[in-house]
Amino acid sequence: MRARYASWLTLLATDSDYLRRALAPSYWALVPYYVGQFNDCSCSLATATMLVNALRGSIGLAPVERLVTQQALLAAVNSALWTAGVGADGGEGVTQRQMGPLLERSFAVYGVDGVAIETVPVLRPNEAAVAEFRAALRRIETSAADLLVVNFHVAPVVGHGDYGHFSPIGAYDEGRDRVLVLDVDRAWFEPYWTPVDRLVAGMATMSHIDGERRGYLRITRSL
User: Fold this and answer.
1) Mean per-residue pLDDT for 58-86?
2) CATH code at 93?
3) Which of 98, 102, 144, 173 could connect to 29 by a Cys-Cys bridge, CB 3.0–4.6 Å?
4) How many distinct structural domains can be found in the chain?
């Protein structure tokens, strides 16, 4: 029987040393709001929900204000494209190119201002792409105002599966050149470390929805 996780992955549950010794600001910003996608195609929605809650925070909320849920976010954004893609099992999901505007609208409807979103396609899994991605990863280790979302084909990352996927990045362990993926497919996965080159290989793939390259999104909030 095929193993659930490829040999190059390690699980956070058994390998948490980095988070015990590093500041890991993005991890601590995101993990209080870690949710699993509510159906088989809503990874983009679960990811956006985590980001909105992380940047919105809960300390300043009134007693009657709730944290953002996936269903509430989908209704508030009111996008026919997003609803068709993720509203029920069997949807196509959304593409990386569509995700940027959906995130912008998500932040806007919940009053999260001063946020810049950069969509970065990964055209080839070459050294230049790896170096650019490492630079983005280093930034998330210095400030919780810098967050990363990856859009990847799952097989190069976890070892099996023929579909695209969104999830936030929790941390970057530069010494071991590996990335902590807070995978929102909680029915199947738990947080795992994957080598940077494996993740870049997963991002340098083509979406079956629009034929565009996958990649990552940089979310930066002005302090």
Assistant:
1) 94
2) 3.90.70.30
3) 144
4) 1
